[in-house]
Amino acid sequence: MSPRFPLNGSPDGGEPHAPGGQPVTPLVETAGTAGRHRVTFLWRARSEDEQAVVLINTLTDRDRHAGDISGHVMHRTPGDDMLRLTYELDADLRASYQILPCAEIPGTDRDSWLRVMMTALPDPGNPVRIPGSHGRNPSSLLELPGAPAQPYRDRRPGVPEGRVHESGTAGRRVWVYTPPGHGASGDGPGRGAAGPYPVLVLLDGDVWAGRIAPTMDNLIAEGRIPPMAVLLPDAVDRPTRLREMACHEPFVRHLAGELLPWAVREWGVTDDPALTVVAGQSFGGLTASYAAFTAPERFGNVLSQSGSYWWSDEDPEWLTRRYERVPRLPVRFHVEAGRLEWMLLEENRRFAEMLAAKGYEVTFTEYNGGHDPACWLGGLAGGLTGLAAGWL
Q1: Per residue in 127-139, pLDDT tens?
Q2: Does 188 share its domain with 310?
Q3: In this structure, are 321 and 187 located in the same domain?
Q4: 20 to 30 Å CA-CA from 153: which of 39, 103, 147, 164?
């Protein structure tokens, strides 16, 4: 978890410091309002002219859409080279954030913000990092004391470890997580396995390939899920992702007709849709739900996080209405979204309510956070545990 210190937490009454003189940040103290904390971010300016902006996932972006990010600009302490900014935030917030050092405050138009997203930096005083994706720098992790636990996130000593293999099929790079003991007695990736194994197809595999193994290992070791494999198809690049993750039937047919049969042959996974989960975040959550709509004979479980159910601009909430118009499919759902996801929370609520009204088995979870990888890893563990509860 992120370091937490009171504002006057060091022995000399000043701020605590990391090696090299950088303050350990963010600084957290109880606010006067019940259920809130004061959180102070610090940045040591490298010149007299340098300014800085705190980019808290969702909070800053919401104000950016409103055209005013002045509330996120850090201010200089008189007689010091330190810039600082204090927020009062709910005590159960979990969020990723970055800091943007700049000579002048950036504009709020889309092109300016795309440049901000590619150049903002992690907090040098916070050692807890979240890997960047699609060419972006890493982010730092803010976890306030009341944030829900993510007990399966980090590697635990002594827990048997599965393996992540880099492979490919049909011209696409795919990473494959195999649980401890998979293929132990064989001479190939799927030979000697004790399967067939339940399988999770986790979209945006390039983002998750380096992060998913500890969570799977811990869940399996605790008996929360059975030993299962994870297929992690590469999103390739941004243009490909934007095309394939927008209810694109050829991509779903690739997953159902090429990726999964390949994994059955080569990695010992099941071909039972009831033991197959497709999962994704943002457009990946939309695509996971579309995959089950298009190929319910192959995808019997959907784990959608922050799904982009607003899609599309020409026909808003297209997929929600498609589900509403057809008889109930043999698919189970776990849907979750952050209460700070002001651009898609209502759409996620309506999607889950529609499923429930049609008789689907669906759980819907809201958390205090945004459209944020800091929240998704913990939510992935919880959603997968719920969907796999009857498989043990």
Answers
A1: 999 998 878 899 9
A2: yes
A3: yes
A4: 39
